[in-house]
TrEMBL record:
GO terms, molecular function: oxidoreductase activity
Source organism (scientific name): Aquamicrobium lusatiense
InterPro entries (UniProt xref): FAD-bd_FR_type (IPR017927), FNR_nucleotide-bd (IPR039261), Riboflavin_synthase-like_b-brl (IPR017938), SIP_FAD-bd (IPR013113), SIP_fam (IPR039374), SIP_rossman_dom (IPR007037)
PANTHER family given in the database record: FERRIC REDUCTASE, NADPH-DEPENDENT, NADPH-DEPENDENT FERRIC-CHELATE REDUCTASE
Domain FAD-binding FR-type span(s) in chain numbering: 105-238
Family: Belongs to the SIP oxidoreductase family.
Protein name: NADPH-dependent ferric siderophore reductase
Length: 372
């Protein structure tokens, strides 16, 4: 792999035990591992890393296809070292590309350029900033926004310590991170659109701050700063026939992916919304059937109609490449994923089903997004 490179020697007792630990952790990211004696190589399509035990030290090398990816590999290694040593002090003297970074390379400060409502409960906020080329991809559709703490005296932005670990200037007033889909991006204009589902007033849903992203969008003003981190998350796979399914939270990603499909693509779109007033115009190829499901007064996350509709779709059995994508509440996510795997028998590479939220729980309580 040719790209960005870094290495470090870390004073670390029992480094063979750490090598075993980091190997198990990197497998969670789909890394292929090669182990021998007290050494380990780990690699994916986007990065490689190696770990070699020396006397009371650990030699670490990493290479990645981009500076952003190299930073993520370094941060992962540093966090694992921190957990391994516990309360003991440690230092990682990184050398090579990115060793002089003082802020995460995937972090940017944007400002609100415009605010408009797409539907009564879907607000589109356009952010303006510099160098948005990294978001102009369908392989990673999401980012994290930094919703500032209401009592923070000034905006709280992340920095990097010498070990490559993210630090915040005021831990007590640390921003809350929320995941959103990049609905549109215009690299030349330096703008991107984010769509926010405006839930009921945050003060009636368990108190202020229970829906920080929606609450911020409700009061967003032109010129207001917004920190973002990304991109990340799964995206679109090339296929002949598609199924897209989701509720309001999955609709921005569905809309963006439909707009990127070639004219010959075929498939089904199923979207659950509150009522007919929440339907949006979707620019899909002519070979798509679009179906809207209305809750008509039922609370979001309380019906089975999205999963039931997915189970009613006829999937091609004629050799065409099929890809299914769904994003919704946790119970629907679980039902749809089980059906696609056990009944339709789609391979893992041929579907992505994500839980964007869980009824009655905050993102922290639900553990963030769940996927395959």
């Amino acid at each position: 792999m040719t790209g960005y490179f870094t290495e470090a020697r870390i004073e670390l007792g029992n480094s063979p035990a750490f090598i075993s630990r980091i190997g198990d952790h990197l497998k969670l990211y789909g890394a292929e591992l090669s182990r021998w004696d007290n050494a380990l190589d780990a690699s994916t399509e986007l990065w490689t890393s190696s770990f070699e035990s020396e006397t009371d030290r650990l030699l670490v090398r990493a290479e990645a296809s981009s500076l952003d990816m190299l930073y993520l590999v370094k941060m992962t290694i540093a966090e694992q070292v921190m957990q391994f040593v516990g309360d003991e002090a440690f230092r990682i003297a990184w050398t090579g590309d990115g060793s002089d970074l003082t802020v995460p390379p995937n972090f940017s400060v944007m400002e609100v350029a415009s605010v408009r409502d797409v539907t009564p409960h879907m607000r589109r906020i356009t952010l303006r900033g510099d160098d948005l080329s990294r978001f102009d991809t369908l392989e990673a559709l999401h980012l994290r926004i930094l919703v500032q703490h209401p009592e923070a005296p000034t905006p709280q932005w992340p920095t990097l310590d010498p070990n490559g670990i993210v630090r915040w200037p005021d831990g007590e007033h640390r921003p809350r991170l929320r995941v959103y889909t990049v609905r549109n991006v215009d690299v030349a204009a330096g703008t991107m659109d984010l769509d926010f589902v405006l839930h009921g007033d945050a003060h009636t849903e368990g108190g202020p701050g229970t829906a920080p992203g929606a609450d911020w969008a409700r009061h967003a003003a032109i010129g207001q700063p917004m920190g973002i981190i990304g991109p990340g998350g799964g995206g679109l796979k090339e296929a002949d026939w598609y199924l897209f399914a989701g509720d309001e939270t999955g609709l921005p990603a569905i809309g963006r992916m439909l707009e990127a499909l070639p004219p010959q693509a075929r498939g089904h779109v199923i979207v659950e919304v509150a009522d007919a007033g929440e339907e949006q115009a979707l620019a899909a190829p002519q070979g798509f059937e679009i179906r809207w499901l209305h809750r008509n007064g039922a609370e979001a996350g309380t019906t089975t109609q999205l999963a039931d509709a997915v189970k009613g779709v006829s999937f091609p059995r004629d050799g065409r490449e099929v890809y299914a994508w769904a994003a919704c509440e946790f119970d629907a996510f679980r039902a749809i994923r089980t059906y696609l795997r056990k009944e339709v028998r789609l391979a893992r590479a041929d579907h992505l089903v994500v839980s964007y939220w869980r009824r009655g729980r905050s993102e922290e309580e639900s553990g963030g997004h769940h996927d395959d």
